[in-house]
Automatic annotation (TrEMBL):
The lineage of its organism: Bacteria, Bacillati, Actinomycetota, Actinomycetes, Streptosporangiales. This is Uncharacterized protein (TIGR03083 family). It comes from Nonomuraea fuscirosea. Residues 15-133 form the Mycothiol-dependent maleylpyruvate isomerase metal-binding domain. It comes from the Bacteria. InterPro entries: DinB/YfiT-like, Maleyloyr_isom, MDMPI_metal-binding. GO terms for cellular component: plasma membrane.
């Protein structure tokens, strides 16, 4: 279930893509990305445009498509980066609009509405915008509702237990005995994550937990995306570290 409606997903994808394009403007294609240590900036830029176009193809065709290899996406022409990034986002937006946002298409987790792919790329781009900003020294910003959607989407993907574990077997280590992690952002509903023997369960709200992570929604999102160290933590930090160690995508 998506929290943001179709119109906001369109806006959100454009916001984060524009932010990414701004962050890489004038950047060095050879610059190493600290948070993706095997990537150069050229690969990060190439990956997002590649993935947008891959998602658009799924929306247009409806059926499965092999996940593209980011290593084949290196984009070494900085003068064309803005057009590459914005063009990919617009291609995906147009594909969803033409197909209808509720039309079902393929995903690795089963049939999903086409808007799933717009949301998926909004979330992926939001995180990689941070990677790019860290690489180039640009400022990073993200709307609170978009940051919240990134957190919600990641939990939904992880909680789709069978599909998630088939895609990333290490997620099976998140099965537990009732351990509870709480994300407690400033001023908005948080997320309560429970590790059960059957898999991860989660809900919006606030409860006591074995470990609680606090901060702005953006800070919490970046912690759970493994981009920022967790500073405002109460409770058993080992529970948090175990989660983070097994949720790298």
């Amino acid at each position: 279930m998506m929290t943001l409606d179709y119109a906001r997903l369109v806006e959100g994808l454009r916001e984060v893509t524009t932010g990414l394009a701004g962050a890489v403007a004038g950047g060095d294609p050879e610059a190493k990305v600290p948070t993706c240590p095997e990537w150069r900036l050229a690969r990060l830029v190439g990956h997002i445009g590649q993935a947008d176009r891959w998602a658009a193809g799924i929306v247009r065709e409806g059926g499965p498509s092999a996940v593209p290899d980011p290593a084949e996406a290196d984009h070494d022409q900085p003068a064309a980066w803005e057009d590459w990034l914005l063009g990919g986002a617009e291609e995906l937006i147009a594909a969803v609009r033409d197909a209808g946002a509720e039309t079902e298409v393929w995903s690795m987790a089963g049939p999903v509405p086409t808007a799933f792919w717009m949301r998926r790329m909004m979330c992926d781009t939001a995180v990689h915008h941070y990677d790019a900003a860290l690489t180039t020294g640009a400022a990073y910003g993200i709307a609170g509702d978009v940051a919240a959607e990134v957190l919600t989407e990641s939990l939904q993907l992880i909680a789709a237990t069978e599909a998630a574990e088939a895609f990333l077997p290490r997620l099976a280590a998140l099965r537990g005995r009732g351990e509870r992690l709480v994300i407690r952002p400033d001023g908005v509903d948080g997320w309560v994550i429970t590790r059960t023997p059957e898999g991860v369960r989660w809900e919006r709200g606030d409860r006591d937990g074995d470990v609680v992570v606090s901060g702005t929604t953006a800070e919490c999102m970046l912690v759970f995306a493994r981009r920022l160290p967790a500073r405002a933590v109460t409770g058993d930090r080992a529970v948090l570290e175990h989660w983070l160690a097994h949720t790298a995508f």
